[in-house]
Amino acid sequence: MEKGKETTNEEERPVEVDEGELTNIELSASTVSRGLIDDFANDNLLGKIVRSEEEAYTLYNEYAYEKGFSIRKAKSRYYEGTRLIRQKEYVCSKEGFKEDPTPSETPSYNRLDVRTGCKAMIRFTVKDDEWKVTHFIAEHNHELASTEERHLLRSARNFRRPKPRLLNSVETLTLTTENTGFVQRDQNPASEQNLVFIEGGDAQSLCQWFKKKKNGDIMFFHDVQLDQEGRVTNFFWCDGRSRIDYGYFGDVVVFDTTYRINKYNLICAPFFGINHHRAKVMFGCAFLLDETSTSFIWLFKSFLESMGNKAPRTIVTYQDDAALIQAVEEVFPDTSHIICPWHIVKKASSHLAGLYSNPAFAQLFRKCVQQCNMESEFEETWQRMVEEYDCKNHSWLKTIYRYRQKWSTAFSSNSFSCGVISSQRNECVDIFGGISSSKITCLTRFAIEVDELVARWRDSELKSNFRCKQGAPPLVIKKSSICHQAAQIYTHKIFELFEQEYLEGVGALRCTELSSSGTLCTYRMVGDMDDQKEHIVQFDSSALNISCSCKKFECMGILCSHCLSCLHMKNVNAIPHQYILKRWTKSARDRAPSHDLMDTNRRETEVEYHTEMMRWAYDMITRSQKSPITRVLLRDSFRQIDQELKRVEADLELNVANNAQASGNSGKRKKNASNESLKSRKINDRAVDNSVQANAHANIPFDIVNLNQGSIDLSTAPFYPFSPQYLQHAHFAAQEAEQFQRNN
Prior knowledge:
5 domains; six-stranded antiparallel β-sheet; 42% helix
């Protein structure tokens, strides 16, 4: 073949996360030798040889999958005048930068900017039908996908990679995108499985399911309550992942008792929270036979035990039942209890009947529930409502008024709630919407469906984590440094909320300075449009401390539009670090579980320490089990820790032995010293007796200290008989003599 001048052709295929068609070159492990795959751990493909373009793509794509990045085709160089490839390049999908749209183009705000200018690439040079790697760059300038996220990489999606982890059993009935390698739209509906349950009734079947879960998950926890006749009444369970998640996001727990199932009319009561994507995360679930304080107290204690006795900062409930309120106060005395305002508003339409149909009354009632920022404002609005509509003696209004601190935002604005109390029910509470239940649904079937639902939640979180790692969300204001900072730190969902607050703050608020004293300034914020409600913002420029009367940061954890407007006006171009809540960031899980729930002012118990370390180890084991490399890494780390622990334990045992020996030697020395002291005192006593007889009538004080120190001539020392000094000396000598006899 005649070789001439080469030509270049760009074959770039832009990669958008979760969009587009599957790559037309399928991976096949058989096309790449086992030796090449083994070299992936060495980060060196330079000099490797394959036989075709397909094998070249497969080699780099397999390497990319093992490392955790996606690839795309780049430059192709041809021999002049032919379509024969001379050189072929493949690059990381994050190579280059996204071009800004021209003014005439309509920008698309729903696509991630995944390009980071990464230089990682590979170049094959073709000669005599051999494709040899002649240039290779392994370094990346971005975070790589973790083991459980690699199936989401676009270039790694396929239908032929074997998946040995798929099991056909009750415990692993759910096929998640993680263990299949497909994204959700790639999957075909699974065939219906016929589950076989142990005979003997629902309770026995459910307990057997608990045992099976426990066999496969050492941190699986379950508890069962019996009545006085030994019959099962209540169930509670949570898996190991739920206990791990509680360590990260257990500051706010939502407890819902509004869902009933099957022929027993059992209450299905889940404990769940909100993760860093503002999505639901399950902490545990219960089946309750009734809603008595006894059942609630048992359930809360079981939940607390499963979580290592770490109580949440806030618990949100969806019932205003007295038994539930009593149980929360007894089991969680230091936890803020919030009754969901949405629940109170919903009940008003049924309890207040004709009154609530009046728009003016309904507006006042909703203001009391959700729109009052101060207690005085609530009391004033409530009194106005009950007086104008003559409902002071209404039984339901009197009942909920007693618990007003738990459901009105005027009292709960200082309690952190992740924004749950301001959300609609269908956003945060209707968690069993995807589960069908009938009067013939058995408990085990429903528990398995809950398990499958939670698996879908976790798969959704995995995808959200992956998207956050792939690129930053598009910015409405591209030149804003504070928005760039927020986009890099926060998850995409939280950034959307932050950006909305920022845009409202800089574009829809009027600011008036009320006072200024040194570095402390006070401002009044009022909306430009119909919202004429005032909010007071205080800002200390020395420490960049800021607060607002709306209390959004206290209850939600992100700065409100009023605070952001003030920071913008003061030319503060970054979010002060004290107002970046770790739980809302992309790195929310990059810490030891339960670290933020620990009370540093007290010493943890052995049970708490055991639970804490079990969670941490379980989390690492779960993350490492999907890759041989991470398994070896964790085993080696545990082996090193074990050796270090043994060394420290040996040192501690040696110290204990040395201390015991030193204590024994000290005891012997004390015995010898006591013996010598006793002999000395006997000699002294005889000398004193002689002195007493010789000086019986001498009225001269005697210095016992000088006597013991030997500075007085005992033969001539004057001594006053039965003086306090003499009696003290005699009593002390008698005590030492008795002690010496006991020791010997």
